[in-house]
């Protein structure tokens, strides 16, 4: 079976859930091989082994780790040219999408972004892809070079499948560092205790309907161990940080469950959440456009509905 590369998303060896999802997708179409950049491979190795990585190509070298995306694309391009994998899967976060684009150019390959599924097709690796800000879902296949596929978080449920995850140190000469942006300082995000939006299985979002009081939204989110999102109206009003904005000019998410409370469902908001697996809306206006795309809708005041829902979840 041909190798399928997965670029590991991690923080100092703490592997993010997206990586387990990508390894699971890789196993469907070939032999998962993890590419690990930076310090902490010893910490990551058991997790990569648990989710089926047969080998781990690891590079912890200041030429790669001290910079943003360009050296990682160069490293991947070197490995692609040497090992000719059947595909490369990269997390579709902002850095990952840029790495994927640079890698596609460097290897003269086709690129698919925002894939939400990866399967083995008759003509090679096939993807289901969310396009035009989530307005359409298409089946796509790369027809040139090595398929470079940026996969949206939460696209697959991680499946454990024990493998050796043998660590193979990589010694490639990286020349692009000086041409890219150098990391001069990094400061950790203030932890909210809630999951990150891009990784969360459940998101509860609030909009202008909260009138600036996110208490009911946060309480319901916490009862479900969910992340909290916001519409741009709520962010522009200064009620919630921009990092929580969902939509065309915010984050694009695909959780298992998305709850929109006091959000009308403008096209720009939909662009960030309409690929969610199950969508629930709470809105006091039965004509609100959000009800066109929901799986379950509650017509009512969020300040009455959400506390009842929270109490039900906490009692169960
Ligand atoms: P509104 O549209 O005002 O809707 C509020 C809803 O709350 C209404 O449906 C109302 O019935 C309901 N409501 C009120 N009170 C209650 C209550 N007590 N209980 C229950 N329901 C209640 N928007 C985004 O969200 N993300 C983006 O990334 C984004 N990018 C944009 C980019 C561009 C270029 C532009 C032009 C716009 C963008 N927008 C974006 C803005 C978007 O067009 C909408 O203005 C915005 O999404 C509206 O937010 P909202 O649904 O919270 O507010």
UniProtKB/TrEMBL annotation:
Residue ranges annotated for the Electron transfer flavoprotein alpha/beta-subunit N-terminal domain, each copy included:
4-192
Q: Which GO terms describe its molecular function?
A: electron transfer activity; flavin adenine dinucleotide binding
List, in alphabetical order, the GO biological process terms annotated in this UniProt record.
fatty acid beta-oxidation using acyl-CoA dehydrogenase
Q: How is the cofactor bound?
A: Binds 1 FAD per dimer.
Tell me the domain of life. Bacteria
Q: Give cofactor(s), names only.
A: FAD
Cite the binding residues for FAD: 208, 231-232, 245-249, 262-269, 283
Q: Name one Pfam family in it.
A: ETF_alpha
Alphabetically list the UniProt keywords: Electron transport, FAD, Flavoprotein, Transport
Q: What protein family does this chain belong to?
A: Belongs to the ETF alpha-subunit/FixB family.
Question: Self-association or partners: how does it assemble?
Answer: Heterodimer of an alpha and a beta subunit.
Q: What does this protein do?
A: The electron transfer flavoprotein serves as a specific electron acceptor for other dehydrogenases. It transfers the electrons to the main respiratory chain via ETF-ubiquinone oxidoreductase (ETF dehydrogenase).
What name is this protein filed under? Answer: Electron transfer flavoprotein subunit alpha
